[in-house]
Amino acid sequence: MLNNIGLPGLLLIAVVVLVLFGRGKIANLMGEVGKGITAFKRGVKDGTEEIENASSADTGTARDVTPEAERRTDA
Predict the structure, then answer these.
(1) Average pLDDT over residues 51-62
(2) Structural domains counted in the chain
(3) Range of the domain at 27
């Protein structure tokens, strides 16, 4: 469906969007998108660091993560 848009079609769409929303609203929107991307990258980096810190602090022994109510006491 969108295979035949081409450059003139894209320029027409950009002009219509600019007329409808104005330059200020589009600039604000792009600023918010940039902040969102930055926050996402920061979150991914923090998560990766947290995983690396947890794995480096691990002593190599297995931990029992079974909930207390489900643990068997006869084992």
Answers:
(1) 71
(2) 1
(3) 22-54
